[in-house]
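Write out this protein's structure.
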Amino acid sequence: MSDWLTLTAARIAATATDDLRALVDVSSPSGDAAAAEAVIALAIERLPPGASIERVPCSSAGHADDLIARVRGTGAARIVLVGHVDTVVAHEHHAPLIADPAVPGRVVGSGSIDMKGGDVLALGVLRALAGRPQDFAEAALLLVTDEEWRLGGFAHTARFAGFDACLCFEAGELDAEGHDAVIVKRKAAGTVRVVATGRSAHSGANPDGGANALLALAAAAQAVAACHDPQGADHLTAVPTVMSAGGAFNVVPAAGELICDVRADRLGAIDRVLAAIPAEVGGATLVAENQRAWPGMDHRASMAPVLADAARRLGAPIVAGERGGASDASHFGDVVPFCVDGLGPLGGLAHAPGEYVVEGSLERRAKVALAVLEAILAAASVDA
């Protein structure tokens, strides 16, 4: 392990917990523009001197503008580091960062692992890059404000097309042997919404005069669930998750909706879930659409030699991992030669009470991220 890697990781870790506390202590659920602005302001304070700052429209309406910070160098490679500042935790349930009273070595707080801990490491890596301008032409940090609840498209793919690499700092992990892992493959993700339109009637006096939207949605849910095939060629998972219909106990429901979470290796595989949903059930019509179309990411081949080099630099194995969950890295998979995710700290209970970061992993994962970065810079210089 090089002196630069060791010393730089220690430097990042020296302020990481304080930086994490500053970010976590601001409750920033998706959609709260003022809260997002507060977190972005804290991130800007932690940028390297001389970084340019650009605020660009978020992919989702009603959200605060996203942040792009850029550092210019004299080399050839162009790198984008990616994170998000929004959480799924409502203000009334927000917990500031504290030392875990039950488990030494953990810090707990809302959004700590998903993904403000990763944001802290991304900021540290950008500061580290600023000290090596000869190794890159441009290093950008993209922090978005809508990752957790985005349903539409992603606004930034074209902006970074032609970059050499995307490094995303979602939560890190270990493999079964305790080796550090990073993510080089993610599934495509869809959010299928089914709207039912039926006909109301009195459920006691004239039940057959109605067209029951709830029963139609139940049939749609069964049709979606029948597509579930995690062991199949596309590793398709199709899970109905939310259904609502009706407004009174004695009225045939005339309207309702069903939400389903669908994931697969290929985005196109989600189309067969849509095709399986009937257009009409018992006189009620069903209209289905995919509200969220996040592409898959598969950089197992391109990242294999990079991770071998990074492991040599780290002096320890770095394992290529896969996840079913989507992230913003997925949007860059088709436009950059090298794409890697899961560079954040270790932790758990994302989106849940007790969400935590393993404090000691901040330095450990900073080393992993820096080793991967050095290997990518080396590979990009060869390709150039």
